[in-house]
Design goal:
This protein is α/β, with parallel strands linked by helices. The protein has 11 helices and 10 strands. It binds 5'-O-[(R)-(carboxyoxy)(hydroxy)phosphoryl]adenosine and zinc ion.
């Protein structure tokens, strides 16, 4: 089955053609992130306007390898594409509507079914692309993005059970807010990761590891970390100790705190559900320290645990995993039945 997938939930406009959920024929991503840098964060109105101007060129480019380029776009979709997949939520309403309405229009004109996709659940399916190492079930899946930190039990590609999530900030949000506090602007987790490499404070934890207790077994909380960083920053600044070394040390420490919690909770879920496979996904799963720490802790357990993590470009937002999810877990509907849901729940049990 050949799916044209469309993603427009936030500041990326993406389109992709995916075959049978695992083979990528095209993957096009246009980002308006740079536009938002001067405002210090994503401005929904600006993001939606950029979605509008990017959506058709992005879809056109994604369809380049499909059919005879001298034929019209709609003709090629009618002839070669089986279904249109589109993110319906969660996300920014203005951005989501651009993708959803475009998908509806294409589906109406070509009489193809539309597959509504939950963006957060779809992130996990980046692990199904080109996998030379087939996924063994049950698996524990950790989705760590800018807006979500969620744990799932995956018993098959279709069967997902939500196990826990963040009660306040997501891990990515904590990276992003800390990056701003440390003066990295909109650089987010990548800026923290790079600065942390320059730290010399290895082995001296100064930040809390939130919610590691058994009571909050599989939930997360990262808002306290951001406050702790703010306090440390103010303390160092008033003592005249604010310099590149201090910034590197705080970057190192916040990255250690976030990754410690993520690894510990994921391994706890693995034990609770007698699983031996871990799937990582979402923008934060691109973090090299997170991947390294997972590998170290897995080694320490002495158990045969397999860790899957997508290639870095498939961790952050794209339409490839939208197409993969649609293949494995999608429910095709007609264009009249589809809508955007900015607050779409991620707490599935099916
Ligand atoms: O999945 P994603 O692209 O978008 C959402 O669906 O939210 O995730 C974006 C998040 C941002 O918070 C960004 O700072 C974080 O992923 N991120 C990273 C890294 N690369 C992206 N965090 C830590 N280390 C990285 N290397
Ligand atoms: Zn995402």
């Amino acid at each position: 089955m050949k799916i044209l997938a469309i993603e427009s939930s936030c500041d990326e406009t993406a389109a992709s053609v995916v075959v049978d959920g695992v083979r990528v024929l095209s993957n096009v991503v246009a980002s308006s992130r740079q536009m938002h840098e001067k405002y210090g964060g994503i401005v929904p109105e600006v993001a939606a306007r950029m979605q509008l101007s990017s959506i058709i060129p992005t879809i056109t480019e994604a369809l380049l390898p499909i059919g005879d380029p001298s034929e019209s776009l709609l003709h090629r979709i009618t002839k070669h594409i089986d279904a249109i997949a589109v993110t319906i939520g969660p996300g920014l309403i203005g951005s989501l509507l651009v993708g959803v309405e475009t998908a509806k229009t294409i589906a109406m004109a070509t009489r193809k079914p539309v597959i509504p996709v939950n963006h957060v659940l779809a992130h996990m399916y980046a692990n199904f692309i080109d996998t030379r190492n087939p996924i063994q079930f049950p698996a524990i899946s950790l989705v760590v993005s800018g807006g979500h930190t969620e744990l799932y039990l995956m018993e098959s590609p279709e069967k997902l059970t939500w196990l826990g999530g963040t009660i306040d900030d997501a891990a990515g949000e904590c990276f992003d807010k800390t990056a701003r506090l440390l003066g990295f602007g909109h650089g987010g987790g990548v800026a923290i990761q790079n600065a942390a490499r320059l730290s010399r404070s290895i082995g001296k934890p100064v930040l809390p590891r939130p919610m590691l207790d058994k009571e909050n077994a599989l939930n997360f909380s990262f808002s306290g970390l951001k406050t702790a960083i703010l306090r440390q920053t103010q303390k160092l600044q008033s003592a005249g100790l604010w310099n590149d070394v201090a910034i590197a040390d705080l970057s190192y420490e916040v990255q250690e705190a976030i990754t410690d919690v993520l690894v510990k909770k994921t391994l706890r879920a693995l034990n609770l559900h007698h699983a031996s496979t871990i799937l990582l996904s979402g923008g934060v799963s691109a973090n090299t320290r997170l991947r390294e720490k997972f590998n170290e802790r897995i080694q320490e357990t002495g158990m045969a645990i397999t860790l899957h993590a997508p290639p870095v470009p498939l961790c952050t937002d794209n339409a490839v995993y939208i197409g993969s999810y649609a293949h494995f877990r999608g429910n095709p509907v007609s264009w009249q039945e589809i809508n955007a849901f900015p607050d779409l729940s991620v707490e599935v049990r099916s």
